Each structure stands twice: as C-alpha cells, then as structure tokens.
Amino acid sequence: MLFAGALLLAAGCAGKPSAADCDKVVRHIIDLEAAEAGGGAVPPEQRAELEQRKKSVFQSVGTTYCRDDMSVDQVKCALGAKTMTELSQKCDRS
Predict the structure, then answer these.
(1) Which residues contact 9 (CB under 8 A, 6 or more apart)?
(2) Could you tell me the residue range of the domain that residue 79 belongs to?
(3) What do you get for the CA distance between the two ends of the chain, in Å?
(4) What's the pLDDT tens digit per position in 19-34?
(5) Cβ–Cβ < 8 Å for 66, 5
(6) How confident is the model at residue 15 (pLDDT cuts 50, 70, 90)?
(7) Is 25 domain-assigned?
(8) Does 64 have pLDDT greater than 90?
(9) pLDDT band at 38 (very low <50, low <70, confident <90, very high)
(10) Which has the higher per-residue pLDDT, 93 or 30?
(11) Per the domain annotation, does 24 fall within a domain?
(12) Would you say residue 3 lies in a domain?
C-alpha cells in the first residue's frame, strides 16, 4: 500500500497533535487506503488477514511523522476525510 500521509508533511504552526490523535489519524489513513484498494469487499473469511496487513502497515509507518510534522488542524482535517482524494485535496493545505 502506498502511504499518502507523506503529502501532509507541509505542517503549519497550529500546535502539535497528541499521540492519541496521531494514532487515530494514521489508522484512519490506512483504513481509507484499504477501502479504496478493495478492502471493503473482502469476504468475511479474509477479514482477519486484512486486519493483520493493516496492523503491519501501521507498525511500519508509525506516528513519528504525525507528531513531528503535522499540525493539529491537519490531523483534524485528515480524520474528517472520507476518501483519499478528499484527504489530499483538502488536508495538505491545512
């Protein structure tokens, strides 16, 4: 999976997001990417594998970039995004 969070790195100075919010935003972005890659259509017997893959991506990506480079406004925007397109079009300018 590509990780689109990198496009959010142009952070503003509106304060730093909490560790909990960074955890949420990274998981949300992974969920959006998985859904757009067909994860929503995964048969029930393959759900556990999908969840394991998402967990592996989260562990690989981590939340450091969020804590170091994202603003609170960017995190709020990203958490509200319903698609990766919305995320990239609206949140990279926050």
Answers:
(1) 65, 69, 70
(2) 14-38+45-93
(3) 24
(4) 999 999 999 999 999 9
(5) yes
(6) confident
(7) yes
(8) yes
(9) confident
(10) 30
(11) yes
(12) no
CA distance 4 to 88: 8
Q: What is the pTM of this model?
A: 0.77
Q: Is residue 4 part of a domain?
A: no
For residue 62, the one-letter residue type is: G
Q: How far apart are CA 27 and CA 58, in angstroms?
A: 7
| Amino acid identity for residue 78 in this structure | A
Residue type for position 84: M
- Rounded Cα distance between 36 and 32, Å, is 6
3-state secondary structure of 13: coil
Which residue, among 16, 8, 26, has the nearest Cα to 63 in the 3D structure? 26
Task: Give the tokens for residue 40.
Answer: 């929503």
Q: What total number of domains does the chain contain?
A: 1
